[in-house]
Amino acid sequence: MLKQAKGRIGRNAVLLAMLEEEEEAEITTHLDALEWRYCKGKVGSMELQKIVSSIETAAKRNNVVNSELYREMHALYHAIIEAVQGVTRGQVELGDLMRTVGLRFAVVRGKPYENDEEGEWIAVALYGTIGAPIRGLEHETIGLGINHM
Amino acid sequence: MLKQAKGRIGRNAVLLAMLEEEEEAEITTHLDALEWRYCKGKVGSMELQKIVSSIETAAKRNNVVNSELYREMHALYHAIIEAVQGVTRGQVELGDLMRTVGLRFAVVRGKPYENDEEGEWIAVALYGTIGAPIRGLEHETIGLGINHM
Amino acid sequence: MLKQAKGRIGRNAVLLAMLEEEEEAEITTHLDALEWRYCKGKVGSMELQKIVSSIETAAKRNNVVNSELYREMHALYHAIIEAVQGVTRGQVELGDLMRTVGLRFAVVRGKPYENDEEGEWIAVALYGTIGAPIRGLEHETIGLGINHM
Amino acid sequence: MLKQAKGRIGRNAVLLAMLEEEEEAEITTHLDALEWRYCKGKVGSMELQKIVSSIETAAKRNNVVNSELYREMHALYHAIIEAVQGVTRGQVELGDLMRTVGLRFAVVRGKPYENDEEGEWIAVALYGTIGAPIRGLEHETIGLGINHM
Amino acid sequence: MLKQAKGRIGRNAVLLAMLEEEEEAEITTHLDALEWRYCKGKVGSMELQKIVSSIETAAKRNNVVNSELYREMHALYHAIIEAVQGVTRGQVELGDLMRTVGLRFAVVRGKPYENDEEGEWIAVALYGTIGAPIRGLEHETIGLGINHM
Amino acid sequence: MLKQAKGRIGRNAVLLAMLEEEEEAEITTHLDALEWRYCKGKVGSMELQKIVSSIETAAKRNNVVNSELYREMHALYHAIIEAVQGVTRGQVELGDLMRTVGLRFAVVRGKPYENDEEGEWIAVALYGTIGAPIRGLEHETIGLGINHM
Lengths: 149, 149, 149, 149, 149, 149
Prior knowledge:
The first copy, chain A, has helices at residues 9-18, 25-34, 48-61, 70-88, and strands at 37-45, 100-110, 121-131, 138-148. The first copy, chain A, is α+β, with helices and mostly antiparallel strands. Chain A has a single domain (9-148), classed as 3-Layer(aba) Sandwich (Hut operon positive regulatory protein HutP), CATH 3.40.1510.10. Chain A has a 4-stranded antiparallel sheet with strand order 1-2-3-4, with helices on both faces. Chains A and B meet through helix 1, helix 4, strand 3 and strand 4 of A and helix 1, helix 4, strand 3 and strand 4 of B.
């Protein structure tokens, strides 16, 4: 069974990605108390490749994942691609379809289930804007991917 | 240009869908002050059709959209389908792929741009769980669709 | 090389599906002169299965394809599915996504290339409306699939 | 309710894109009489980005849309992407899948519903060929996207 | 690094699904020697749901996965869906698109990497026929999904 | 009706792509006896375009297809794209999604049905690894596409 709201990995990742910097302390304090690993960053691009690699790099550097183990990179990769699907809604493409994104991302790793044997899971949340490559011609977008580690 | 964080239609819709009932007053008070229209509801199903119709019915009954005008129903419909893509991440199917969802949804209609001529837009946010049709075998999921009215 | 406009299989199929009955004589006279096989029909449904089977049945009954040969049914099937993708634009689903179609279809079989060795090809064209299962809440839609026989 | 055949926005857009130059006068005269805005053009490419930007540029230059308003560009953009899905049938990709298109496009903006409150809609039609990047190795393709303005 | 050919989890799963019963002893003997868990079965249906549940049931009953742990069912589920994508090639649908499958499946769980810390992975292989719901109107199809446990 | 196991075009193509060089003689001897045309090759890339063109080039050079006839190239092309869908499972993209493949491929052309009128068909099989552009961070993948010639 999933834990209650405050123990939810997706909810925490989404709030971390979506809240303004001055609002995020509540979330990070809570994640620190849970002893969950996490990181946060920003990336803007017309290339999906750059979105994927920015998140992977941040997660490695902040020790959210162990880059030496493929099983950890594999879990993270699929969580990223699932989050990107929420952002792109249909065609998992940016520049080829003449659009660009400006995103904040959060990666959270922890134990979201009451049963300890369910072990660790990872959540990737993306929040920002998507639109034409012209300033202001854009609307908001969100995505969340979750995977077992 | 999009308004600052508090004036963002997607962010408000996501928070309305995701926050617990005791936390949502801050959002609804804010949306009331903006004089934006909105509604909130819950739906659980293995059938996407039921998800779509529950959101449409709630939006009509709460006068978020005018069900007599196809252009309003068309705008809402595409926002729902885009939100569902974030929830399903890849294949826009539930029961056929042996999975079910339990979702809270929010629909918000307002003016998210500084330029008044950008007019009204609609946001549909979904938050909840997706998984096997067995209690507890599930993880979180989110989706957001935005369209011009 | 494809033949000029009047010898184009896709163009003929689209016009046959799209023109009103009183306008179509020009096309059918032309197809008869070319000695190409063709048929036309109507189908409305929330179920894709019914769309596919209506077109298959019409093509068999009018001897546009030989239902005894899998290679002919395989060629037709893929042309139908490609045409349906133009109609559904993204998710190849109708009722599951709470939408319905009212379509006219045309199937044309002939030799559209200057080089006779390119042999016979088949075109499936669909034209009509797609929308909510409520009269009038709909817009037009089109699709064309082409395959070698 | 949609207007009868001659008042249909999608049908007009498809005919404008598909008919030869010497045949199109009937359509343009009719569109002028309706006081609908429209434009027509050609584009060939292995890059979807170029297809999208050519149509956007033509629609802006011919005042079919107001490029200063994101809501108009947003409506046009989604109509283009939907039309492209009919052209690509499955994977919304060209060069990455080793194929190229030669297309004529038409954009039409008008009021296709009997009820005046349904307001303005936009239709993007594409017609041409798709195939290998070798002259002659190609077949026809079509796409139509429709959106409320 | 992946182990050499005989230690490959996907290759073993594909051969187990594809070889005739009289040929499979070589594979099962080898899997037994590796002390890997596996099962094999057959399923024919126009409903994807039945394909998914047949594989899940076989994997549970043969103790290839522990049905009490969501993380194991989650790993298996995604491997199944990936394998189904190879079978359906494009639209992850059967009956809705008027087609049916007759499949043999194999699920294999083991350690396919030289580095022991990469731990256990799961492979789902499908092999059989796909086609119209008429005997003989069908061709072969294959799919393979791999996930970390 | 499809022929028995040894006469199956997909099974032969998959084994030809998947077996080690020292194991493949059994398959090639059998294909030679059937007087079926076939070829085998290797390709590694982050670009799908290169995968498609490598297979097309090998099939042309080995006279598995006649590159002068579009109908043969069209049949081969769709078989390749279907095989690629098994390899990519969801998004038909490699480098854009920050992943790369190392594949062996086989193309087989023959008569897989008991009824001689079903004529020639073509099978494209792919087997290898997919993963991050870092050596060792990869797992196996397979794909099979079949089409009538």
